[in-house]
Amino acid sequence: MVSIGKLAPSQERYYLDAVAQGREDYYLGAGEAPGQWIGSAASDLGLSGEVHAHVLALILDGHDPTTDERISQKQRAADRVPGFDVTFSAPKSVSLLHALAAPEVAREVRDAHDQAMRAALGYLESEAALARRRTNGRIERHDTSGFVAAAFRHRTSRAGDPALHTHVLVANLVKGPDGNWGAFDAAQLYAHAKTAGYLYQAHLRWELTRRLGVEWTAMRRGGTADIEGISRDVIRAFSRRRAQIEARMHERGEHSSRAAATATLDTRPSKDHATSTDDLRTEWRERANSLGLDAVALDALTHQRQLHQLGPDEITAHSTEFASPEGLTHNDSTFARRDVIQAWCDHLPTGATVAEIERLASRFITTEHALALGPGRLGEDRFTTAEMLDTEERLINSALSRRDANVGISQAGQIDRAIAGRTLRPEQEAAVRELTTSGHGVDVLIGKAGSGKTYTLGAAREAWQANGQRVIGCSTAARAAAVLQDETGIQSQTIVRLLGGADEAGGLPQGAIVVVDEAGMVGTRTLARLLDLVAEADGKAVLVGDYRQLPEIEAGGALRALADTLGPITLDQNRRQTKPWERDALDHLRHGDVEEALALYEEHDRIVTAPDADSVRDRLVDDWWKAWEDDCSSLMIAARRSDVDDLNQRARERLDEAGQLTGEPLIAAGRAFRVGDHILAARNDRRLGLMNGLRATVTEVDHPGRTLTIMTNDQRNVRVPSRYLDAGHIAHGYASTAHKAQGITAPCAYVLGDDVSYREWAYVGLSRGRTENRLYSVEDAELSVALGRSKAKTLATSVIGRSR
After folding, report:
1. What pTM was computed for the model?
2. Crossing angle, helix 613-630 and helix 641-657, to 10 degrees?
């Protein structure tokens, strides 16, 4: 993998202190190998060979090491970043082979790592060593002669475990085409770091397969694999440094790669350079032997596999897969060359050279499989597939062509009676009249959280049905469909079930009005297929949602594009939150004005912090419990299922102490259930009458039969059998993810924020409670940075529009 950290002034001493004082190979000495100058531009400054402290200090300070003159155009400032620590880390299994094998094998591993590191750094140079120059008020990027960098190879972690890795200190100094030196565009470095990590891993697999014939496990997330024959138990036993970092992240409730880099620095102990290599290797061998990784097992790791070169048929098959709906555009409508590189790395079990993978990627984006769209974010070219672009264009053009379809029209008297039967605000009444008289084949209803979208649809449904028209509702989740049905009277189901039924019946009912709730979460391909069926039935589609709430999991952006193209019907008045300031705060957050939103929450004591994650969660559960005692319907919201499980367990401890849980627990899928427990169904089962997101209370526990009897919120008694319980489909219901909470209104909502929160997620979480919504985080957490991130998706056609 590859990680990046900003280098602070004077931090170069850490790297120099960590290397060997002598020049001997570290297999024979106590220290690490001396640092070496690398990077294409190092020779421009006369740098080669071993790194010396005073020269490195000059380079990082922007000075010529020969003349001591400043060569960077930017004068030194207090906030100037002198450089970046780009760290290339071998998989733990490779580090173990390097540490425990015979010297001739260890040297091959070391050399393979060095070659892979240099090759991946070359990719970073070609993509990220770009000079930033301001011309006529605009920032332009220019090619440079490359990086000036110092590489420090280490063999151990700071916990004393084998950890083959190289720190590459890249000076924030590049020479542009005009011959002037200056800072480079660090955003490009971060953007391409993940891809460089994939390339390093792939090139390392190629080198080690070629040199030693090792076999590899299946690919894991991040483009990594381990040497076959080294078990996960052994890897965990030699990962004490990783355990320290993860413990620090757990203490702060953090999960991101940026947080991992911070935790690495926070938990950094001093290396013990007094321990000799012989002593280290002896301790490693003893520990490995006790775990079954002895000399015989180590010898069996090599000469197991030969390199596999992709043939023309395999290249064609993989390229076709990348261009399919399940390939590069499955989750996003566009991709960059770096995404293609990552895809190729994932499909090369014995790896390949960086040059070969780049050649494959470049070839792919010049074939009929990839359509060039123009520059996107950071100026890099974006691409899509013909299938993706055709799907988007068909969706937009079909909706435009049906503007005058003359469908879904009700009579004035029918509309008046539907409106008269409800207490509607003026904007809701206007929305009902527009929906029922426009005649459009596709209408888009965009409403803020709490603006009464479903209440409005109830009146429209009544008008349509009075006119004899069939109204069908659907949503991505069964629970959302049930809420739509309960609150509007529209018979509703999941989109998957609706599409499946249409396939069996040969289409939708003629003239049907199809209401798609939470349409902002529906992928473009699914929505296009649904709109095709509506058009074939000469019906009307009503897309309801908010593209500023939780985004699609699959390639998306269709709801926003249709709203921009067709002109939306809007509901702008949020009546859910009782306090005007909170409605203002949500408006700020919804539109990306994060600082203004957080200032309002801070001003009204709605942001709660504590020194560590455990204390934060205690504070959150304390506040939830006070509200729960008054009204057992307040809600805790977290981003991850593991966080949700933790909050649920803390909540159950309060319930148990208060005597609200009775009887012996039934243990199913690692969870304990007692009478009085509030639960949440996590899987649809029509035979049982259960749906994903359904909430209920346990009223009876049958231990011999391993069943629960539950009372659902709609007052149904359901017997839940062991097959459903043991599959893990029942969870505790005191906390939930934002996806489960979208569409729910509670008296109060308590939201656990962390480093991977984002704008749309926070907007949904903080808009669930009527009277109170609170945000909880660890002290010093950069909430404004997290909530400033948007995960909203866009169509490929939108990229074309931006590039013109």
Report:
1. 0.89
2. 50
